[in-house]
Amino acid sequence: MRSMTGYGRGEAEGPAGRFTAELRAVNHRYAEIVLRLPRPLVALEDDARRLIQEEVRRGRVEVAVDWRPAGAARPRILVDRELALAYDSALRELSDVIGRKLELTADILLRLPDVLIVDQPDIPKDLVWGTLSEALRAAVSALVAMREREGAALAADLGERLGRIEEAVGEIAGRAPAVVEEYRRRLEQRLGQLGAPGLVDPARLAQEVALFAERADITEEIVRLRSHLDQFRRLLAGVGGPRSEPVGRQMDFLVQEMGREIGTLGAKAQDLAIAGRVLAVRTELEKIREQVQNIE
């Protein structure tokens, strides 16, 4: 299991030069890849995005690539001589018009548009991509390794919290039969305090207890809660490794369903002891919900 946060860095060197890729990942509901490539590499943006998405299924990942060209890939700086002479001629003409000598210094000349031209050689895409992809893969591997380390810590924490919920649900299930029996005793005691125990119709009493038992029956909620807990456990146990599938959204859904079931259970049980265990389950579920938001 992986968290959505992490950092990865990779380098590679080849005929086109040295490439350095840095990846920074944070939480996000979906997969969002934000690329910052040197201008000559913009044509490779889709290839870079597909490579990263092979391993990153969820989260916002900011990708920064630095390229230090080498050899024939290194850009050349050219001077447009005709344009520079044209600027100089225009300045001389302006001097004559205004009757004041104007000087075109080298500093001013170099800042005028298009005097200096950066000539980027036409490099075969395969030559560049071979080295760039190597740097990206190294960065992605480092990012995934960090995410998996954090994911292992999250899985351990979630496992402990699930254990506490399972224990509480077991206590609730064990307590449920006693709730009906206590209701029967309280009803008989109340009738006895009214001074007419002999006038109570046993069939009527049994009917009243049966109606309460039906209203307070939490069997379905217990069964569904245990099913959701079991599914959550399987997600924790069944993921791992470099090709594990994202489970964050499934876990988030199960947490929502467990919250709904424990809420219904608490409303139906009408018992103080069960209410205490329901509160404990709600507390653990809220902590699990916060942790799940960090899982890919």
Shape: elongated
The tally of domains stands at: 3
Proportion in helices: 55-70%
Count, helices: 8
Tell me the strand order in the biggest sheet.
Answer: 1-2-4-3
Beta percentage is 5-15%
Structural class, please?
Answer: alpha+beta
CATH topology label of the largest domain? I/LWEQ domain
Instruction: Report the radius of gyration as a whole number of Å.
Output: 36 Å
Largest sheet: 4 strands, mixed
By CATH, the architecture of the largest domain is named Up-down Bundle
Keywords for this structure?
four-stranded mixed beta sheet; I/LWEQ domain; 3 domains; 296 residues; two-stranded antiparallel ribbon; 6 strands; Ribosomal Protein S5, domain 2; alpha+beta
Overview of the molecule:
- The protein has a four-stranded mixed β-sheet with strand order 1-2-4-3, with helices on one face. Strands 5-6 form a two-stranded antiparallel ribbon.
- α1 (45-53) links the parallel β3 and β4 (59-69).
- The longest helix is centred in the middle third of the chain and has 69 residues, at 125-193.
- The chain is built from eight helices and six strands; from the N terminus they run βββαββααβααααα.
- It has three domains: 6-73 and 125-143, Imidazole glycerol phosphate dehydratase, domain 1 (Ribosomal Protein S5, domain 2, 2-Layer Sandwich), CATH 3.30.230; 76-119, no CATH class; 146-292, I/LWEQ domain, CATH 1.20.1410.
- It is of the alpha+beta class.
